[in-house]
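=== Structure Prediction Worksheet ===
Name of assembly: unnamed complex
Input type: mixed (protein and possibly other molecules)
Chain count: two
Listed entries:
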Amino acid sequence: MNRLSTRTQALLPLMLLGACASGGSKASGAAGGGVVTLEDPAGDDNGPGNYTYPTDKVYEPGSFDLRKLEIEDKGDTVEFRLTYQTKINDPWDSKAWGGNGFSVQMAFIHIDTDHVAGSGVQDGLPGTNVRFAADEAWDRVVLLSPQGPTRVNSEIEQKASQWKDRIIVPKLTRASGRTLIAVVQKAQLGGDPKPSWGYQVLSQSNEGFPDKTDLLTRKVNEFEGQHRFGGGTDYDNDPQVLDIFAGKAKGGPDEAELQHQALSKYTKDAQAPKPEDLAVVPLIYLGQ
Amino acid sequence: MSHRALSVLILTLAAQPVAAGAQSTSYELKGKIYTKWMYKNDASRGCLSLSNPFWSDNIGGSNGACSELDLTLTGRVSKWVTAGARIQSRWGALWQDWWENGDVRWDFPNNTPFYENTSGESLGMNHAQYMKLRSTWIRAALPIPTVRWVHLGSSDLGMFNEWTVGKSRYIDRDNGSGVFVEGAFGDALRYNVGAIALPKLFIGPRWSTGIKGSDPLASFWGSDWAYALKLEATPVDGLTVRAIASYVHDWEADRNDPDLTGPSDKTRQTDRAVDLKTRFQAVNATLEGKYNPPAYDKLTISGMTAFAFNNVNRDYATNAVTSDQGFSPVVYLLDANGQPKAAVGAAAKVDIELDDPFDIGLSPKFEYFNIGSTYNVIFGARREADVLLTEGFLTTGFMKGGQLPTLNVANEFVDFDEPWYETVIGWHGGTALLDYVLGGFNASTEYTLIGYNTNGQNRDIDNQYPSFLYTDGFTDTQAYTADFDYANVYDRGRDPRSVYKRNQNRLTHLVAVNGELLVPGVSDLVLKLKLKWILDQDNRLKGNPNDNYAGNLWLGFIGAQYQFTDEFKSSLGYEFQYWDEARRSGSQETGFYDYFTKKHSVRLGLGYTFGGLAITYLLEYFHKDQDRTRPGSSDQVWNVWRSKATAEVSW
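=== Predicted Assembly ===
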């Protein structure tokens, strides 16, 4: 085999895949339902405005900075695509521990399917230290974790079993470029996504060795550490959330300020916080 | 502190009440128990597939059950100061080894090391499950201008990079200690600076910083340090620039110092002060940049240049290329006059990535890499890192491989299911990779072309350049064992550290296609596919067409993962490899001979997690058929069954 023919042979799979990719995308566009898109400004991955990243180099700038959430109806499944400011890496080689191809990110996608006061859950999941308004209580939450599904299910069983039926571990979670992709069975959501549904994402970080009351979340302390966020408190009163969507979720700069306002409203001197001491996170209802 | 005192301390601390829900508790105690069962159809005993390859340490082996306890204590001294420690039981005792206590066994008068008898005390301390202090550290936010943190003690060295001071491998993660300061000049410049005590093993000539038993020319390792500095800035929106430099210095006592050569006597110029001489120095530096244009955030351009300087003082370091059959983590260069000189090398790479530019799920990536023939980082990452985009030679359907710019790659102290790493010194080429994601379908295809800066004729591998003895053929990482195959008696191909050959004119093409599909309509079933082809050509000595190596590696893999319940998952895969290697091994004198290798591998994986208990089971069978046309070399067959099960809890 001469060198020229070798190279041509080598490039063939690339060409074939490109052709397949183009065809596939057209098919999906025709088959898929509507796409819901929420956007968020860059540079607001600081919680209430003053949170800082852990100091280890794996927490690259922008790693927890939400930019976009897309929710697409794919027939029997619903695809969630969560895009961050920077490329999603896998510095801890998650495949070696049964993970999903990324390491440090983690996100909770909350969904309110009825927007009715008294329906749903007002509490945040363990380790988030937030709550929700009565008429914006969540009914489902999709959990995007680099941990394999059996580990996530085990943590849910131990720490949030009362909401087990409401917490969705996707059938597939993966990273592609700057985006986390999760495929969820529509039946898990309770039916077709509707324009009236409300959404909110809490951007957190995967903690493989979490506190006994935390659902795989990383702590926010007063001072940042090698693997701890800084800028909060050393008690469980501060929202352990780096970024959320806010306002009309169009990505405008005012939305960063709205986020800061929402996440700042917690009782900073509450060492044994009650629910009313925690920040209230709003949901985004694009259809209203 | 004695073991008993330490145990009492831990029990006392564990008995203290902990305030529920508060992070302000003055301490935190975390524990982990890890148990492993290994079985294989051979006669080895132990719980570690590949142990110490050089000093057989009697913990390696593939039949046994072993447990380990790990305790981590973290204390809040104040809101500015935290401290921590980790203690861990020594790995290596089998469940079957009931009475081992580390005592010297009764073997009078022979004192045979590790002689096994009925005393039950025969295997040494590393089978006695003693608790060892693995790390201590103090971390303080001191009110010093620009300083954010001072860290004293153990560290995984993860703050630098693979090309300077690499993150320690997992089993060594707390073994490194130093003094570290991190801080910032406002938002303009962030910095990390550190002084790290050099490990007496693995850094330097003959993999040591001066151990008498390793190098008769050296014996002093208590004053050897490395120093590193990282500067990082974001000068404009979207652009991050990072510069890292490291310096390694291995000192030895001046053996001619009069204080070491005779009695104290002023006329002999003794002064109760011993001068030092340098045995080894290394400088590594990188300059990196990463740019995400704010106007088009789908594009990422990153680049890196690296510099290396390695200098060996031959008066204090034995030439391992000459003395150790070409096994050496450093080169021993000579100038045109035959005088020793430092090895200076450079490296560079550029990456361009587009994140789904057409919004159809297709993301192209391109990488150019050029690693100089004498680039080498002695203190870089030894494994568990990957500096190139390509999946390289070693990645298969079952096993991941990685690439590192060092001769110091470490593939020992691992199990058969763990990744392997290869050196990329001398690699010059590029990779084009397409990622395609469409819902539950994901595929990637890669083409990589590798030329070699190490190509050349009549290279001196007798005295200057380490060859690692085994320079030819595809490496079979699957067939490595911890027994006498360390000497490669089973002919398993090129050593992953081997980059230099006497005569080389090599070019490699690599194509890989990977696919993964969440099967529509069958909830929780994921199919995986991998196809790979490598054409590796080396025309060796110019003018001799009869020594031209042409290796073709074909690999096909198919696998499936299925999640039966929330707690229970499984996987099953099959892989076939065929290697057609023309003129793989031989010599200019005897000629070169063809090798043909077929491998069939099957793996079954099970995982069960509930209530914090995680159990895994892996069963592998592989059949390898190696036909060798070389006279005197018989054909070989492997029929290997092996398994590994683990149970782990943390609290």
